Amino acid sequence: MGSVVLAAEESIGAAPEEVFDLFGTDAGAGWLFDAECDLLTLGSVVTMNLPLGRGGRRETVQVLGRIAGLVPNRQIVVSHDQPWRGRLRMVFESAGPRATRVRLTAHVEDGGIEWLARRAGWPAPEPPSDGTHRIGLITSLSGPAAVSTIACDHLAEMAVNEINADGGILGRPVRLFVADDATDPQVGAMEARRLRRMGCRVLIASATSATFTGIQHAVGNTGIPLVHAVINEGGAGPGHVFRLGERPGDQVRAAAGRLMKETGGRNWFFIGDDYSWSHGAHHAARGVLAESGNDVVDEHYVPLGTRDFAPIIERIEKSGADLVLSTLAGADEVAFQRQSLAMGLRDRCRTLSLLLDESTRERMGDRAAAGLWTSLGYFQQLPSQRNKEFLAEYRRSFGRWAPPVSSMAESTYAAVHLYAAAVRAVRGDDSAQVVRELHRLRADLPRGEVELAGPHAFRQQLHLAEASPGGFKVLDPARSSGVIPRHNPSI
C-alpha cells in the first residue's frame, strides 16, 4: 500500500529551550499536542494527541509510545505502538523573540494507513484466499482500554511466527489479522463479522468483557472457537466460547487477606467502570470478603473513559474506608491513581487494583503506582527459565522500545498457541473437533503450567505483587485458581 506523511504544527509563546523542557509536564498541559510525559529522557512513556483533519473538523487520535531519540532543545522522537506502530518526530524551531514553532511529522506505513482509512469510514480491503490458516485477533488499539492491551498484538504476532517456524498448522502457514475494537462493543461486533467473512477459523478477543459480549452476539451459532484471552469476570455460555485469564474472585481471595493483615484495614470502598466487568468483579469480591467479615462501606461506578475522579476521591475520604478495591480499566485506572496520589488519598487508604499490569503501571508512573497491590497470573519478574527465554525473544522480535509484556499480552500469546495445539492434535480444522480438544488442553507457558477443563474453567498459578519503581515486586505465589482437569494432553 506504501506510506503517507502526516504533519502538524503548533506555535508556542516561549523560547525553544523552555518549550522543550515543558514537554509533557503539567505546566504544559493543554498544548503541544496534549503530551503527557513524566520525565523527558530516553525510554520514558509518552501519550500524545495527534491532530487529524476530517471533513473540515479537527479530530485527534491518541498515540501511546515512548521517547526513542532526543536532541536537547531541538528534537524529540517518539516510537509508538498504538494505534499503529511507527515514529513521530517533533522539531523545535525559533519563530522570533520568545516564540517557538513545533513541527510534528509521522511517516505512516501500511498498518497505520489501514487504521486511518477505517477511522475515516472507508472499507478495508478483504484479501483474497491465499491458502493460509487465518486467525483473527480483536483488541483495543484505541480508546480507554488501549493502555492495558498495548502489547497484545505483538505477542499474538510472536506466537504466529513461532507456529510458522514449526511448520504452521497442518502444513499451512498461519496468518494473523488484527482488528481494533476502539474500546467499543459495537465496533468490536462489526470487526468480528468482518474477520469471519475473511475466513478466520478462530476469533481471539483481548478486549473488554463488553466487547467480547458484542463479538458473541455478532458471530452467533457458527460454532467457531471464540476465546476471551484476558482477565474477565467469567460466566457460562455455549461450548465454543472460551474464557481464559484470571477471575476476580480468585484475585481477591489471593490478595485481600495478606493486604488486610499488613495494613490493619477492614473497611472497603469499591470503585469501577460501569459495565459488566466491574459489576461482576464487585459481586465476586463481596462474596470473598464476606467470608472473613469485612465491611464494604460504599461502591461507585463511573462511565468508561472518565478522567476527573476528584468527586469520587472526596467520597472515598468521607466514607471511612481504609482499603480500596479498584476494577477500573486502562486509562481510567491511570487517571484515578494519579489523582489519588495528588489529593492525598494514599496517605489514608491502601489499594488492591485488579487490572494493574505492567503497561498500566508504566503509564501511571512510578510515584502514582508505588504501593499498589495486584494479583495476576503473569509478571515480567517471574524467575523461570521459560520466562527469561520468552522475554529475550520478545525483545529480539520487537526491539528495545517495545512496550512491556503484561499478563494480558502473555495470555494472548497463550491463546494463539492453545488454539494451534488443538488443531494439530485433531489433525484437522473442523470447528467442532477443535472445540472439543480445547476443552482438555495443558500447556507450559511463560506464566507456568495452565490447564483447560471445559470452556470456562482455566487453571493457573496466581502471583501477588506490589508495584515498585520500574516494575513489580513479586511476593510469595498466591495460589492456584480454577479447576484441575484430569488426563490432559500436554502441548
Describe this entry's structure for a reader.
This protein has 3 domains: 107 residues, START domain (Alpha-D-Glucose-1,6-Bisphosphate, Chain A, domain 4, 2-Layer Sandwich); 184 residues, Rossmann fold, CATH 3.40.50.2300; 129 residues, 3-Layer(aba) Sandwich (Rossmann fold). It is 33% helix and 29% strand. It contains 14 helices and 20 strands. It has a 6-stranded antiparallel beta sheet with strand order 1-6-5-4-3-2. The chain has a 5-stranded parallel beta sheet with strand order 8-7-9-10-11, with helices on both faces.
Order of strands across the widest beta sheet?
1-6-5-4-3-2
Q: Helical region count?
A: 14
CATH topology of the largest domain: Rossmann fold
- The end-to-end span amounts to 38 Å
Rounded average pLDDT: 90
Strand content: 25-35%
Please identify the top-level CATH class of the largest domain.
Alpha Beta
Radius of gyration over C-alpha positions, nearest whole angstrom? 23 Å
What is the approximate shape? globular
Overall structural domain count: 3
Which structural class should the secondary elements be placed in? alpha/beta
Judging by the overall fold, what is the CATH architecture of the largest domain?
3-Layer(aba) Sandwich
For the record, what is the CATH homologous superfamily label of the largest domain?
A: Response regulator
Give the biggest beta sheet: 6 strands, antiparallel
